[in-house]
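Duplicate of earlier report; Ribosome-recycling factor input re-posted below.
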Amino acid sequence: MSVADIKKNTDQRMQKSIETLKADLGKVRTGRAHTGILDHVMVDYYGSPTNITQVANVTLIDARTIGVQPWEKKMLSTIEKAIRDSDLGLNPSSQGDMIRVPTPPLTEERRKEMVKLVKTEGEGAKIAIRNIRRDANESLKKMLKEKECSEDDERRSQDDIQKLTDKFVAEVDKLLADKEKEVLTV
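Output:
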């Protein structure tokens, strides 16, 4: 493995940490409705637990309401029950062959809890990025010890990896600030 390979691998792993953080932040509920809220709801579809998106069309009706249109009419009550029984605190209601799921506005206390959750997710991402930096630096030291690179190359590469780390930590901070603003916006 060369110095360039270590840098490239480090960059890719840090980028994956950012992608994971984005996915995790996407699951944090804000005051607005979004179809991703129901992604983890499982419905009993003829005896087997099935993701709600595989038995119904999930859309946004307006900023605070999600519409769920089952593909089979007899699934209406099953889907409604699955949403009600989920730990999301949602109260769906049937209207003809469609289920309306209003998302309740978040209380100030709940918003503050969400901000804490967002900060925890961000701290986890920063720790992951720092661990990746540590692994890269250890690989460089090992290469130096085995005389596969010069001390200058090792020092320069460590500086490059530190710059990479700083760049990704700044990106995490920006993502957290954006999500915090989004959660606190009433």
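The helical segments are 3-27, 76-85, 108-145, 151-184.

Merging into the original ticket.
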